[in-house]
Amino acid sequence: MTHVKICGLTDPDLVRFAAREGADWIGFNFVPGSPRRVTPEAAASLLLQVGKARPVALMVDPTDAEVDAIVALGFPVLQLHGAETPERLAEIKARTGREVWKALGVATRADLDTANTFVSADKLLIDAKPPKDAAYSGGHGQVFDWAILDGWQPAAPWMLAGGLTPDNVASAIAATGAPAVDVSSGVERVRGLKDRELVRAFIRAAKQP
């Protein structure tokens, strides 16, 4: 069965709801300027609602001090969504002892070759490349050409992101063989605010037999 990550939650009731509906991971966004950003103080309360889901901290080019502050909250997974190098990822992984994921925007096979340089990543999150001049790297609701994944041999376990919705996630899984999927804007009716029915529909569509 496909695993599901619901990312960018900011409301404790929705965190609890997503976990109860079967989300495997719940992502908390610490990126300045994002409409889904949470503070460490807010995250401490949100973490109380995750149930059996695993919480994931989304960060962009974090300093050691920022990493340490997030780890101190108890996050078992760190997701790097910036310009971090393979060496920086390995350094953060060694420093924290946590699971570390790397998110990368792709549009071509060459981008997938770049993704495969992150050999120490615990998971590769393959997303659509953001629009030029975008203020942040994810959550733009854009789909990339899934055909570029044909025959790709990932260097680490991977997850599909980028423009997924309750309407297209089953097709995306069928087309790519993705073992896991990630959604943020695709379960929002208002930017930055998750919708319960869309969250439920996405999880059910992704996990259907």
Characterise this structure.
It contains seven helices and ten strands. By secondary structure, the chain is an alpha/beta fold. The strands form two sheets. It has an eight-stranded parallel beta sheet with strand order 7-6-5-4-3-2-1-8. Strands 9-10 form a two-stranded antiparallel sheet. Strand 3 (54-59), helix 3 and strand 4 (77-80) form a beta-alpha-beta unit. Helix 1 packs parallel to helix 7 (196-207). The mean pLDDT is 94.
Radius of gyration: 16 Å
Helix content: 25-40%
* Mean pLDDT across every amino acid position: 94
User: How many extended strands?
Assistant: 10
Choose one word for the global shape.
globular
Oligomeric description of these chains? single chain
Strand content: 15-25%
**Helix and strand element order:** EHEHEHEHEHEEHEEEH
Secondary structure class reads: alpha/beta
Name the poorly predicted regions. Answer: none
- Please work out how many helical segments DSSP would assign: 7
Could you give the distance between the termini? 7 Å
Main beta-sheet strand count, sense and barrel state: 8 strands, parallel
- Strand line-up of the largest beta sheet: 7-6-5-4-3-2-1-8
Topology, element by element:
Blueprint: E1 3-7, H1 12-21, E2 25-29, H2 40-46, E3 54-59, H3 64-72, E4 77-80, H4 86-96, E5 99-106, H5 109-115, E6 123-128, E7 158-160, H6 169-176, E8 180-183, E9 188-190, E10 193-194, H7 196-207
Parallel strand pairs: 1-2, 1-8, 2-3, 3-4, 4-5, 5-6, 6-7
Antiparallel strand pairs: 9-10
